[in-house]
Specification:
Rossmann fold; 4-stranded parallel sheet; alpha/beta
């Protein structure tokens, strides 16, 4: 697990933040760790970055788990999320790294057009009570990615792994151990 540029213990640069830049950073980290391919688990914003990583660097992603997903902030289903991110991005009392993440989200054109080009096994995970990235978005993404799985956790909110870490973890391990794609 790593921090995005400008967050936690990661350094930052004067480059404008973008989803593509965050995906490039993840690809560079994989290379620096001397891994040609890795399993990738992205939650919330990490899901968006992971989608971009799989689109831009398909050979580096072995299996992909996307948790609490959207493919764009510019669609009606993400109205609540868009409003929250816009507020964070404009709030100077928030840390600069968080405002940069908000900026990257707001400027991202989304991944929808590139999703059908993802050719690895993908599992999309969402709680049925997620109001920020509703389960219908994960279902739409599933429909675009050949070989993808759609898993719902009943009654759990956005990033439900906080409330059901064992179930989410076991689900992820089962998927990673599996050697089959959905029909």
């Amino acid at each position: 697990m790593y921090d995005h540029r400008g967050m936690g213990y990661s350094s930052d640069s004067d480059k404008a933040p973008s989803m593509s830049q965050y995906a490039e950073d993840a690809a560079a980290l994989m290379s620096a760790l001397v891994h040609e391919r890795m399993h990738v688990y992205g939650a919330f914003m990490g899901s968006s970055i992971s989608q971009q990583l799989a689109i831009d660097h398909p050979d580096q992603v072995q299996k992909l788990i996307l948790d609490s997903n959207t493919y764009s902030l510019l669609i009606p289903e993400t109205k609540v999320l868009h409003s929250i991110i816009e507020t964070v991005g404009g709030n100077t009392s928030e840390p600069q790294g968080l405002r940069n993440e908000a900026q990257a989200n707001l400027e991202w054109n989304g991944s929808y057009d590139g999703l059908s080009g993802i050719n690895t096994d993908v599992m999309l995970v969402v709680g049925t009570e997620d109001v920020l990235t509703p389960d219908e978005l994960s279902l739409q993404i599933t429909g675009q990615i050949n070989g993808s799985w759609f898993i719902q956790f009943k009654g759990l909110p956005h990033t439900g792994y906080h409330q059901a870490p064992v179930q989410y973890g076991q689900n992820a391990l089962n998927f990673l151990a599996m050697n089959q794609s959905p029909v």
